[in-house]
Amino acid sequence: MISRIRLIVVMTRPAVAVLLATYAAIGLASTGHGEDHALLARILLVVFGFLLFSVACNDITDARIDAVNLAGDRRRPLVVGGANRIEMLAIGIVSAALALVVAATLGWFALAVVAAGLALSVGYSVRPVRVADRGALASLLLPACYVAVPFLVGHGPLHRPAGLVVLAGLYVGFIGRILLKDFRDVRGDALFGKRTFLVRHGRGPTCVFSAICLALGAVLLLAGVDHPTIALVGGYAAGTVAMVALLAALHTDRGPRRDELLISAVAIVGRGMLLLLLAHQELVTAAWAPWAYDGVLAALIALTAAQAVIMLRHGPASRWAMAPQRTGVTANRSG
Amino acid sequence: MENPELPKYTEEKYPRPPVKRRAGAFVTLSGVVLACVLIVGGLFVVGFIVFFAVAMSNFGSNK
Q: Is A296 strand, coil or helix?
């Protein structure tokens, strides 16, 4: 039982789950209902169900590639033998059904968004469509799933242009981050003919394009958010400068471990900027005093900076992992 | 078949440096305090997301 729960937690990719929950919370906060906890709980059920299904699809179809890129990585149950394809498939199907049922209670719009997201997830990973192998299109489609589904389920129909601008900012920023994921996977991707942006264009253009996307995303978010303040704009400016500096460092190849640290730091700064936006939305809605508002934003900026520095110096540490339970079982069996 | 010039992302070839827990613990503690302030102040959602954000800093947040 414990191992099944652990499997589900691992499959949600806790870091990704927090990211998607942040998108959903930003969408909900844009409507002024950011602290409606019952509504948010239902939205998160939908989002996590969608995420589990997407991860199950991706892990099953990418098992052979992950066995190369992430050999021995205990965050990949199929790679280390912590689960088999049938178990993952069952979890994925049940999660998708749960997401659809709960989305139906939120309204026709949420149901349509989730149904479209699930269909796109299948198309992303599963043959014969398998967009994951199609370079640029994959870099555009995956963010559409991972950003638009949680944001739109949280936000509801987009009645104001500002909502669309925020969604565009989140989307473009996610593209900038998803391109960097390919640095970790470059070996297996090249080996199995996965034509990612990095494989096709190389390190330099990938860093430049990622920096452009991240900067453009930040500008769009600031353009779309209500009542932007000096503290928010300052925090975004500092975050953007930090990310561009990290990408400039990544431009030079000095080994995969250094790449990992730099990319992790970029992810932390990006996540911090999203938290800044969410905090701004909720603090404005709750009408906190200006000194308290500035204090919270300053604390978030300092916290993000400290996390990024620690990541750069000491590297990542993950506690969520699958124990290798079935020795000798590898992805080759399931692939 | 396999290009030997492509980097191998394996623990054996590129072992992780030892994690300095003291610095990380201080930042995590600061984040938890901030999350508590937000939750007590009525901003549960931001507070909980800050809490989870400081509790994890692992690579791979894009996949």
A: helix
Name the A residues in 2-61 with CB < 8 Å from any B CB: 13-16, 18-19, 21-22, 25, 28-29, 34-35, 37, 40, 58
Cα(A208)–Cα(A52) distance, rounded to whole angstroms?
32
Task: Give the DSSP H/E element, type plus range, for residue A252.
Answer: none
**For residue A188, how many C-alpha atoms fall within 13 Å in the half-sphere facing its CB?**
16
Give how far the C-alpha of residue A133 lies from the chain's centroid of Cα atoms, to the nearest Å.
19
A82-96, pLDDT tens digit by residue? Answer: 677 888 888 889 999
For residue range A139-183, list pLDDT tens digits in order.
677 788 889 999 999 999 888 888 999 999 999 999 998 888 878
Residues of B in contact with A14 (CB under 8 A): 52, 56, 58
Q: Does B8 touch chain A (CB under 8 A)?
A: yes
Range A41-74 burial, b when 16+ CB lie within 10 A, else e: ebbbbbbbbbbbbbbbbbbbbbbbbbbbbbbebb
Q: How close A115 comes to chain B (CA, Å)? A: 21
Collect all residues of chain A within an 8 Å Cβ-Cβ radius of residue B54: 303, 307
Q: Is the predicted ipTM greater than 0.90, yes or no?
A: no
Taking the model in full, what pTM does it have? 0.82
Decide if A263 contacts A198 (C-beta within 8 A). no
A128-to-A58, A88, A190, A316 alpha-carbon distances in Å: 14, 20, 20, 36
Q: Does the distance separating the beta carbons of A300 and B14 come in below 8 Å?
A: no
Average pLDDT, chain A: 84
